[in-house]
Specification:
By secondary structure, the protein is mostly helical. It has helices at about 5-20, 20-25, 45-55, 70-85, 95-100, 100-110; strands at about 1-5, 30-35, 60-65.
């Protein structure tokens, strides 16, 4: 998770990902940039996140987590990413799979 309001947030993400093998992070990582609606408060450009994510072949999303409609959309996108990657990664926990069931998600976020 990267907070668009703080340069240190992106730098911390870069530092963490440098210590993780690309083979391990591929299909297991997602960069979620928050406060995407606060353009006047950005500490860095969206292009910085896009460049970094594409360099490491990690999907990225920009969202405002305080907006319920955007939050529901985000949950659905993350679930889609998990379902697509689940075919390639055998270590998705059963509790996480249970959390990702559609009824659970819609009851939690609607």
């Amino acid at each position: 998770m990267v907070d668009m309001r703080y340069k240190s947030s992106l730098e911390n993400c870069k530092t963490v990902l440098k210590g993780i093998s690309p083979y391990y992070s591929h299909g297991r990582s997602l960069i979620l940039a928050t406060h995407a609606d606060k353009v006047d408060e950005y500490a860095f450009a969206k292009e910085d996140v896009e460049f970094f994510a594409e360099l490491h072949e990690i999907p990225y999303l920009f969202y405002n987590l305080k907006d319920k409609i955007e939050l529901n959309d985000l949950v659905q996108k993350i679930l889609t990413i998990v379902e697509l990657n689940e075919q390639h990664i055998s270590r998705v926990s059963s509790s996480f799979r249970k959390l990702c069931e559609f009824d659970t998600v819609t009851k939690t976020y609607n």
